[in-house]
Design a protein that fits this description.
This protein has 18 helices and no strands. By secondary structure, the chain is an all-alpha fold.
């Protein structure tokens, strides 16, 4: 550009920095940032946010924090996007405490959280935090106000929030948020239903989980593998006969279970002392050309060995009885 008597401006540098970050060359992007400052071109908020995002994506939160701390030195006040990026980075490396401190700093400095903040906080605590912290967060007055004031939360926001309540076993709270979706003009999706079903299955309330499944089907949503795995896992933990009925119903509906679902069912047969049923179901699945994996065959071998052990036990008991009689 100097060859053509044209000096690069902030847009030019931002394009170069973004290209380096997208290409995984974050260190080069930082070199361009330093070159930018030496040239007297003031970086913009977008400049810093781009590099912050790249550093956090790499898990390098130490350098990301240093960059964040230096932003104010060039006269730029960190905005919600910058806080969100760094908070998300801390959660992804499981530094929940640092993410929480950053959120407190955000509030203290008067930076208004947005729906992205909400998603990151609830999602982070849901995946990596403690149940008590998540419960406290869900009752946070500022976040509750943010949500109820309806800053256009999307389906992702609702699903994270419902998942948070389910994790704390608060199905009443999850149901309340579920009902509020409609007032915000949103319809539940497959993830919404699966999350609620999983919550009820964890609490061994299978009747409630079945009701959610019926609602899903009535809404015209096609159940997916997660739906069936969730239900089957819950039912197997409850009454295995129900699991057999449920699986047979799925096959009749034309749903071919995946290998995870199948292994789950066969394994439960063996655990509950019914290896013969594992072998029978294995044969049924073979008849429809089901593709077993290595674990499937291991379970079937275990079922066969258990059957053989039972035969030997019965034979030994019978022979011992004859000996006693004679």
């Amino acid at each position: 550009m100097p060859k053509f008597m044209c000096s690069p401006d902030v847009v030019t540098y931002n394009i170069l920095i973004n290209a380096c970050c997208v290409g995984g060359r974050t260190s080069v992007a930082i070199d361009w940032l330093h070159s930018m400052v030496r040239s007297g071109v003031e970086p913009s908020a977008a400049t810093f946010t781009t590099i912050l995002h790249a550093l956090c994506r790499e898990g390098n939160v130490v350098e990301a924090q240093k960059l964040f701390d230096g932003i104010q030195d060039v006269g730029i006040a960190p905005n919600a996007a910058m806080y969100n990026t760094l908070m998300d980075g801390y959660f992804k490396v499981r530094e929940v405490g640092q993410a929480s401190l950053l959120y407190e700093e955000m509030r203290r400095k008067g930076v208004s959280p947005d729906c992205v903040t909400f998603n990151i906080l609830v999602g982070g605590h849901y995946k990596y935090g403690r149940k008590e912290d998540l419960n406290r967060l869900l009752k946070d007055s500022i976040l509750s106000g943010l949500f109820l004031d309806c800053l256009l939360p999307d389906i992702f926001t609702f699903n994270i929030l419902i998942g948070g309540y389910c994790k704390t076993f608060d199905m009443v709270g999850a149901s309340e948020i579920f009902n509020k979706m409609y007032s915000c003009g949103l319809d539940p999706d497959i993830t919404t239903y699966n999350t609620r079903m999983h919550g009820y299955c964890r609490m061994r309330k299978m009747n409630k989980a079945v009701i959610i499944l019926d609602q899903l089907i009535s809404a015209g949503i096609v159940p997916d593998t997660v739906t069936y795995n969730t239900m089957l896992s819950g039912i197997c933990s409850d009454i295995l006969d129900h699991a057999m009925i449920f699986t047979a119903k799925l096959l009749k509906m034309g749903f071919l279970p995946n290998v995870i679902t199948t292994n789950m069912l066969l394994s439960h047969f063996c655990k509950q002392g019914m290896p013969e049923k594992a072998l029978i179901w294995g044969q049924k699945l073979r008849e429809i050309s089901f593709d077993f994996d290595e674990i499937s065959y291991q379970i079937m071998d275990q079922a066969y060995r258990l059957m053989q052990d039972d035969v030997e036990f019965v034979r030994g008991t019978y022979e011992k009885g004859l000996f006693m009689v004679s």
